[in-house]
Design goal:
CATH class: Mainly Alpha
CATH topology: Arc Repressor Mutant, subunit A
CATH architecture: Orthogonal Bundle
Radius of gyration: 13 Å
CATH superfamily: Winged helix-like DNA-binding domain superfamily/Winged helix DNA-binding domain
Structural class: mainly alpha
Number of helices: 6
Order of helices and strands: HHHHEEHH
Strand content: 5-15%
Shape: globular
């Protein structure tokens, strides 16, 4: 397993909150958004959204533009290149949860 695949595996399958991080990535893949728009669209608490955005950004799965008050978030080029792997891991997580 290469390092990017391990990173995705940990962020989506191996840690608490992976489903919300996946939801953020799916939303940003459709259209860039700011934190407020993501919180509203996904019906997540703003602090929760900020936490997940921070993790995704630190791991270079999303990129941001603008200053602190006008930041927009996008799926990173590296994430776009690995989109099929991400979807496969996410589907695995959903199937695993449905079996419980």
């Amino acid at each position: 397993m290469d390092s990017f695949q391990q990173l995705l595996y940990w962020l989506i399958l191996g840690s608490k909150g992976g489903k919300n991080r996946a939801r953020i990535l799916f939303a940003l893949e459709k259209e860039p958004m700011n934190s407020n728009a993501l919180s509203k669209k996904l019906k997540l608490d703003y602090k929760t959204t900020q936490h997940h955005i921070s993790l995704l950004s630190e791991n270079q799965l999303i990129v941001k533009t603008g200053d602190k008050y006008g930041q927009m978030f996008f799926v990173s080029p590296q994430m776009k290149e690995n989109w099929s792997l991400f979807k496969k891991l996410f589907e695995k997580k959903i199937l695993k949860e449905e079996k419980k």
